[in-house]
Amino acid sequence: MSWYSPGLGDVPDHFRQLLEGYSDIRPEDVKPHILEVRTRAWEIRPSPTIGLCCFLDLDVAWSSAYDSVISRLRSQPQDGKDGGEVLLEVGCCFGQNIRKIVWDGVSPDRVVGLAFVSQFIELGYDLFRDRDRLESCFIVWNPVHCAPRQDIERRIERKVDMIYIGAYMHLFPYEMQVSVCRDLVRLLRPLKSAETRAPAEDEGRSVGQCRSADNSQVSSEPYSNQLIFGRQVGFLARAGHYKHPDLMVLSPVFYHSPTTFREIWARVGRETGTRWNVTIRTEMISPPAGRWTFENPADAEVRWLVFVAERRDQ
Known about the structure:
single chain, two-stranded antiparallel ribbon, 30% helix, 17% strand
């Protein structure tokens, strides 16, 4: 397969530092340890993220919002009524970004992960050797067969402040992206004027304790500007549906330009009664990811669209 690399080059410094510092893995063991976990993951879910070791990116730290996010998650609430702000990561793979956030000083109970493959949660514990000490909550969720409001309502709907969606949206056609964004907005804490919604019966499965699921510990009001941020593959100017190389996603999928990405959030705002300020920066896509992203991998317009959507209702 074009999106499988049997070897592993230099491990990125940030990931090596995480394994050596957070997981206490010896420097000489880092590379074989990664490859051993990657081999097991490939047998479960052969995808570009696994085959090309894209999980080594720790891409949450790419965002211009990252330092602010870490500061907010570290902060203690002034009124002492609940446990502080909560970040949700959608499509957390092995939970590598969650470990990065925790390593940067955030309490594990401030971070929740939605995983598409249940076995990857267990592989994450093996990769980072923290099964006995990581208290973050992981929820198994199938993004194709159920919407977030149906699957995780009792645990986290209307109880999170920031959502990191990584390279998630570009896995879907255009109209499904709109639906996904609407569902993500529903996971955010309501504004003060919003009525409290009774939780529906939960159909999801969690690993770990979701502190945010306890209504006695979670405020119904947002702390400050709510964020949905991440990255996705797109173009500098054009946009359209393209065949994705991973046959396990819904293809053809829609790749945005900065203009169409802002337009989709304008539509989501109209349909959810919210307003969003979207900032985007474009970055070149370096190999190996660039080998499989498009039918024409030499396309000069292909870029990462690294975005921050900030809620601005007032």
